[in-house]
Design goal:
235 residues; alpha/beta; 37% helix; 17% strand
Length: 235
């Protein structure tokens, strides 16, 4: 049994690359789809926001000469591509789902509203919410925080390539130690890059806890929701 009835799952676009340098690794995508179907079978209502960094990142585009607004819009479209790919993978493994977009993009996806997304989840469909916030200058971390608050999720699960929040980047600093729990304020005071400041503040002000965990290890998603002590709880 899960301690959470409704979740917002934030997936990293970069993680979708698997061992590739760009794009989407089909095996990684299928692993994600099977894990999501597994927790849907537990009766958990699921909303998902995916990043687009495996295809295009607005900020990096700006450094290459793109207008920031245009670059962020390109990043939004990258999240739509990833969302459609996940939708296809979920359908393949037999998990009902629906893609919502933050800007009108019918028939690619249904225009997002809180109430339509909640209605879909109550029917047992996975609600994949694409397009970020629909506005430039906001990251998909902020979009996931916003959507998590809007759909009244019990928790945000941030699936990453590392197994929690550390005192420093564990991929660069071998002496970094992992937190089992950490407060929003401590993240801010330590300058830890769990999410951007806007997203962290939004979660704090609306009492939305975050669990940061390694989504790339198959089975971890179910373990987190079953109450096993993996990842880091941010509260």
């Amino acid at each position: 049994m899960s301690r959470y009835k409704r979740i917002l799952l934030k997936l990293s676009g970069e993680s979708l690359m698997g061992d590739q340098q760009y794009g989407i690794d089909e095996n990684r995508l299928e692993d994600y789809a099977r894990q999501i179907k597994e927790i849907a079978g537990m009766g958990i209502e699921i909303g998902i926001v995916i990043g687009g960094g495996n295809i295009f990142r607005g900020l990096s585009g700006t450094s290459k000469g793109f207008d920031r607004v245009k670059g962020d819009q390109m990043g939004m479209l990258a999240t739509v591509i990833n969302s459609l790919a996940l939708s296809s993978a979920l359908t393949k493994v037999g998990a009902d789902n629906q893609v919502f977009t933050a800007v009108r993009m019918e028939p690619i996806g249904r225009f997002y509203s809180k109430w339509d997304a909640i209605a879909a989840m109550k029917k047992g469909e996975v609600a994949i919410i694409a397009g970020g916030t629909g506005n430039p200058f906001f990251t998909t971390d902020t979009a996931s925080a916003l959507r998590g608050v809007e759909i009244e999720a019990d928790v945000m699960l941030k699936g990453t390539r590392v197994d929690g929040v550390y005192t420093a980047d564990p991929e660069k600093d071998p002496t970094a130690t992992k937190f089992d729990k950490i407060s929003y304020d401590e993240i801010y005071n330590r300058g830890l890059k769990v999410m951007d400041l806007t997203a962290t503040t939004l979660c704090k002000e609306n009492n939305l806890p975050i669990i940061v965990f390694n989504m790339d290890t198959v089975g971890n998603l179910k373990k987190v929701l079953s109450g096993e002590n993996i990842g880091t709880l941010v509260f």
